[in-house]
Amino acid sequence: MKTDTVTQIHITKAAKSKIKDVDFNNLNFGQEFSDHMLVCDYKDGQWETPKIVPYQPITLEPSAKIFHYGQSVFEGMKAYKDANDNVLLFRPMDNCKRLNISSKRLAIPELPEVYFMDGLTELLKLEKDWIPTSEGSALYIRPFIFASGQGFHASPANAYKFIIACAPSGPYFSGKVKVLIEETYSRSANGGVGFAKAGGNYAGQFYPTQLAKDKGYHQVIWTDDNTHEYIEEAGAMNVFARINDTLLTVPVSDRILDGITRKSVIEIAETEGIDVEIRKISVKELIEASQNGSLKELFGAGTAAVISPIASFGYRDQDYDLPVIENSYASLLKKRITDIQTNKAEDPFGWRFNV
Ligand code: PLP
Ligand code: COI
User: Fold this and answer.
1) Residue 304: CB within 6 Å of ligand 2?
2) CATH for 10-171?
3) Could you please report the per-residue DSSP string of 5-56?
4) Residue 233: CB within 6 Å of ligand 1?
């Protein structure tokens, strides 16, 4: 897939690159930032042409509505480089579309797709050298929009900023992932904003997740807010379970993010001949399957997390360990998806995007 650039993007280059200060062999996730960022302002009822400027702080009025009413949405993407130095993205239009789906729910004006795609493409051409190539690392891309317009009136702002910043990053998790099935707090509710990548969805997770971290878990698996009997998704990833040889994941809804990794995993698994069931999964079913040995795998899927096997899950003060198995679906699916992303394998789905 290739698009022609139509937007004339003005570029102001950084006086000096910071790249030599970064240890590309020891990258954390999202802690170091590349030299440039894309900025696009919404004013007077329209999005202005994006520009690229050195990565730098932004100045806002204390009354900017982002601070008071949390009007903000974001995306998470990764850029990879193949053996021939080609810069690659994975299903970028899906991120662009989802950003606008999120924006609509938060009463943020939708961004022209061409600004997103052309802006991203130009930025990546400039930041090419910032794409790490060691296994498990990538240039993590964070497109986001927030209300920069001011005023204490509780209504949508009249000005917004769209920014894309990039962070050369290593894996999101280090070591074995332990999750806690949550049944007190809820991440989302019917009719709410759970399906949107709204900043506030994450803020609302921090306190319950911290309580779980205090008990030794990394993330929470959310359950439905009504009964807390059915699993939904984790803090930063969709969840898959393998019971016997069937791969299960829950349907997306207005409470759950429609993950791009999730839908790719489903398609790859089906192509591999794996039985996939998209249906509700009760906590009871998971526990029974764990006890009778049919629960073979549990893993999370997301851009940052890629495919992260879950080593154990906790529920009501008891931990249930997942077995260590050969021929795991998680390893197979991770290899298939990362090989497509990094151009180590054919892409029969047309997901790879050459920058
Ligand atoms: N669910 C949540 C809450 C997330 O934050 C993410 C990460 O983006 C995902 C699922 C996975 O989505 P994707 O695969 O599009 O990154
Ligand atoms: C991503 O996977 O890109 C996400 O947005 C998760 C994030 C909360 C780190």
Assistant:
1) yes
2) 3.30.470.10
3) --S--EE---SS--GGGS-TTS--SS-S--SEEEEEEEETTEEPPPEEEES-
4) yes
